[in-house]
Amino acid sequence: MTRVEQIPRYGDEEFLDAWSTAWSCGDPDRLLPLMAPDALYRDDGSDLDFHGHDEIARFYRFMLRFAPDSAIRFTAAHGDADGFAARWTWSGTASGRLRLGDRVHETNGAAFSVEGVAWCGLTDDGLLASHVDYYDMRAVVQAVAVDPGA
């Protein structure tokens, strides 16, 4: 008998751990089942939007090129069946370039850690319809850029 893996939904006891693992495991295919096929991911710190699974997977790979050891830990969430806000910490070691708009920052190999909040909307069946991250990208740039002012 084939076992079908149950995808946790917001409100399930294991949701925050599963969501943290999905963002931190290095495989976008672990994240995408939590998101609606037409979901929006917005990285407000970088002023970038990604629509649908293909673009969200592209963002995920971009994040790993910047910091292959990226770890995102969700620590608390509050909301209802329509959506929720969640606190998180993103940490890692910068080993690739960091592109922000028209600027490309060479990185110094330093470790970084930044706290943020995700504002998420949900579909009727509990998948993430939208995920918008709010955080201080300037703090990341200051920690890892060879020339933060450039």
From TrEMBL:
Signal peptide: none annotated. InterPro entries: NTF2-like_dom_sf (IPR032710), SnoaL-like (IPR037401). This is Nuclear transport factor 2 family protein. Residues 17-131 form the SnoaL-like domain. It comes from the Bacteria.
